[in-house]
Amino acid sequence: MYSDADAAALYDLLNPWNPDRRSDDRFFFPLVMDAGSVLDVGCGTGSMLKLARERGHRGRLVGLDPDCAALDRARLRADVEWIEGTAADARSGAGFELATMTGHAFQNLLTDDQLRASLSAMYGVLRRGGRFAFETRHPQARAWEGWTPSNPDDVVDLVDDAGRALRYWHDVDSVVGDIVTIRGTVAKPDGTVLRVLSESLRFLDVAALNALLVEAGFEIEGQYGDWDRGPITDDSREIITIACRR
């Protein structure tokens, strides 16, 4: 069997948190280290907050995620607070300086109702002047067109923590409006399927995203099209946002 715990461990192998090597992690990590209190929404296995603690963060660090197996892995570090729940479950009045959603977790909010509830919760957990930092893939880049086993860059061969040789790839099941549904397949090198991980992602454009942020009460402090804080252009692949509670 390929368990939920195996899938959580695989996530860490596929998405190592390393601000010294990855431009997206390098963007978020200074924000975390400079904030006295941080809520990481969709924290997964907790890699960002665990590294922040390892590198000397002494404030309050809280990770929130609905995936129990990922949180079990996160809880191996006890000096960070780990909470099971979705973005909409975040407790109002907590007074965080910073809330984050990294790894394109924001795209798992599929409906306007989910987005409104989640953004309202993010606004509520922040103190006045607190910031919400997140990213979503720009729909104009049509990233999903590269998520296919025919793209060699999307096929990953690796050895997991249990010493198993594995192969991982994506397939796109559907594109309906701004919702893309994909499958991530975990297999043996000979193609024997061990686990299929399904996910749906929403690709909001800038206008729709910003309208929801303003409706929730946020001011947009900065919005970027790349991890070097360049402007959003016709070639941008990302919409990277720092929004501020008034």
TrEMBL record:
Q: Tell me a Gene Ontology molecular-function term this record carries.
A: methyltransferase activity
Q: Gene3D superfamilies in the record, alphabetically? A: Vaccinia Virus protein VP39 (3.40.50.150)
Give a GO biological-process term. Answer: methylation
**Methyltransferase domain location, by residue?**
38-130
Key words of the record: Methyltransferase, Transferase
> A single Pfam family, by name?
Methyltransf_25
Task: Keyword check for Transferase, yes or no.
Answer: yes
Protein name (database record): Methyltransferase domain-containing protein
Organism this protein belongs to? Streptomyces platensis
The record lists the lineage as: Bacteria, Bacillati, Actinomycetota, Actinomycetes, Kitasatosporales
